[in-house]
User: Which sequence fits this backbone?
């Protein structure tokens, strides 16, 4: 799962952002992926139920591409050096303690969506473990 530290101190978040005028949520998420991580993706599906109102959440396949640090154009009021994202990080299964309660909420929703769709990717059991082990802590 790819997340990064953004321009705000101590801010760790998933890739995402606003929808520009005339843009669909699907176009927006793929643009954000390109801007913030220099990745091309293929939408597997859009979540049927969102974690928050007016949020659009997607499962996206990025293959084995390498992420590169991008910028956050939504913060255009800031100087360019402050819009640059600070770090891209990959949280491995062994580092699951780094997931926040908000992250776990999205992971739980992802598990539900996969089950409802009878979609069983090879990583599904691993993310189910993240939730199980988090509940034990």
Assistant:
């Amino acid at each position: 799962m790819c997340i990064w530290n953004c321009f705000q101190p101590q801010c760790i978040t998933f890739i995402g952002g606003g929808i520009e005028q005339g843009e669909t949520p699907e176009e927006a998420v793929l643009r954000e992926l390109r801007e913030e991580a220099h990745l091309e993706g293929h939408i597997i599906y859009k979540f049927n139920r969102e974690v928050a109102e007016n949020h659009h959440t997607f499962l996206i396949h990025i293959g084995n591409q390498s992420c590169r640090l991008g910028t956050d154009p939504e913060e255009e009021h800031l100087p360019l050096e402050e819009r640059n994202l600070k770090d891209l990080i990959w949280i491995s299964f062994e580092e699951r303690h780094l997931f926040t309660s908000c992250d776990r909420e999205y992971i739980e929703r992802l598990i539900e969506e996969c089950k409802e769709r009878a979609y069983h990717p090879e990583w599904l059991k691993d993310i189910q473990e993240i939730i199980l082990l988090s509940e034990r802590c």
